[in-house]
Amino acid sequence: MLIVAGVLCAVLGALGGAFAWTQASRAESVLVMTRDVARGEQIRHGDLGVVSISVGGQVETLPASPLDPLIGPAAVVDLPRGALPGARAVGDLPVPAGTAQLGLKLPGGRVPASSMPAGTRISVVEVADADAQGAASGIPRTFEATVSQGPVRAEDRTSWLLDVQVKQADAAVIADLAARDRVAVIVRGP
After folding, report:
1. pLDDT at 111 over 70
2. Long-range contacts for 33-38 (Cβ within 8 Å, ≥24 apart)?
3. Integer Cα distance of 75 and 112 in angstroms
4. Exposed, middle or buried, 46 (CB in 10 Å: 0-12/13-18/19+)?
5. pTM
């Protein structure tokens, strides 16, 4: 009886080992995030790494080879460090109907220093013309907006680039004010 139990344990152990070896030998090289990338941020070379893992059919991954098509598009969802991005995790962010996407270049002091990830609710505020004499009259115009891509330091190292979504009707006015360096950004509460 003990001999039969020993043989049965050996056979079950061998079957378990064979199963584990088969699973491990099916490892594939897939992409993994090497740093946190927020929704709306552009994917860069340093954001992706390669890891060899065994993945089941239910997990959506991207193979490690053709890396170039993934560099440049924006993250459609938040991609934390260590995540395995799927094909639907990167791409172009849609601009909803009735809105427009607008790029702003803001000098230091006109954009909050705190983090403003994509989705942050902000107000774009008209500021007084620097060439105007005397105090500005009236209450400045404000426009509701949502951050599409968080602030990035411009090449001049003194200003910030910020992509925002605004109402279609406000887009031309904000673009005109921004071109004349007459806007500032404030973060709104919930």
Report:
1. yes
2. 33/79, 33/80, 33/81, 33/82, 33/83, 33/84, 33/85, 34/81, 35/81, 36/78, 36/79, 36/80, 36/81, 37/75, 37/78, 37/79, 38/75, 38/78, 38/117, 38/118, 38/150
3. 23
4. exposed
5. 0.56
